[in-house]
Amino acid sequence: TMAPILFNTMGTDHSEYIEEEEVHVKNPHLDSMEEDILYHLDLGTKTHNLPEMFGDIKFVCVGGSANRMKSFAQFIHQELGLPGDNDDIRDICAGTDRYSMFKAGPVLSISHGMGVPSMSIMLHELIKLLHHARCRDVILIRIGTSGGVGLAPGTVVVTKQAVDCFFQAQFEQVVLGKVITRSTELDKGLAEELLANSAEIPNLPTVIGNTMCTHDFYEGQGRLDGALCSFSTEEKLEYLHKAYDAGVRNIEMESTVFAAMCLTCGLKAAVVCVTLLNRFEGDQINTPHRLLLEYQQRPQVLVSHLIKKRLGLI
Ligand code: R2B
Ligand code: URA
Fold first, then answer.
1. Distance from the alpha carbon of residue 19 to the mean position of ligand 1, in angstroms
2. Is the pTM of the predicted complex or chain greater than 0.80?
3. Which residues are noted in the entry as phosphate-binding (predicted)?
4. How far apart are CA 141 and CA 309, in angstroms?
5. Is ipTM > 0.95 here?
6. Which of 137, 157, 161, 174 has a 20 to 30 Å separation from 188 between CA atoms?
7. Does 185 sit in the ligand 1 pocket, CB within 6 Å?
8. CA 123 to CA 228: how far, in whole Å?
9. What count of other Cβ atoms lies within 10 Å of the Cβ of residue 207?
């Protein structure tokens, strides 16, 4: 009775979803709403002039932590040589502490918290925001952290396919008690562009590979160091080796829903995560704080390079 419904997003031809480079909300009910309150962003169509505030956005970067996304916006402000003091960049979502949002010229930087549900709530409201603001030709990039599989810590992984814990390139959502399955295909050209860009930047070891998205950091990622653990070291390593053989090079917690929602709404998307450790070697993150900070800047440096190139600044 719970057979999954396979939506027709699983083929390779997504042309029907990307007719023009505008943001497609896939919800007929929205048209009949007089006002749309983006509750978790503390924004709305009646309280804010969204086209004026956001109409010029071309690049949206999302990442887990509010502080990291603020420093990314400051970094971009400086890299793009925008006027004004980058200390003045304010949190557009200051009226809520669920998410933080910063704008630097055509770049929007938003936090999404940890895990699929937190990411999906933010994305529903972000995609509606881009739609209400009548943005065009927008690309979305997740810049994040991850656990590496067979890679030296500090390696940047550009995601080829976002896969679930069974190594399938799909995202399952329960809707009205039924499982809906959506494809997690990412933009191939954008991934290749990022990989090519990485070669132009010193000290930025980068690979392309599959990214596994889980619903837990501990048992869900095969860690032996959580409050609960029901498996042996051998079983853990067997699973991680299977993941490696399926092309998985890093593990994080948001990529599948990010890829699925962007694809459905006609937004070109990429995922760029740095690895903080090699999961074949251990589970605890014992890298010195200073080094962790340096690692976390790597996806930012790569994405900033891509943005500057696309804007013709380099
Ligand atoms: C990477 O890091 C977080 C867990 O530490 C999670 O948000 C993710 O995807
Ligand atoms: N984020 C994750 O989800 N897993 C890791 O191992 C490190 C960061």
1. 33
2. yes
3. 98, 142-145
4. 15
5. yes
6. 174
7. no
8. 31
9. 16
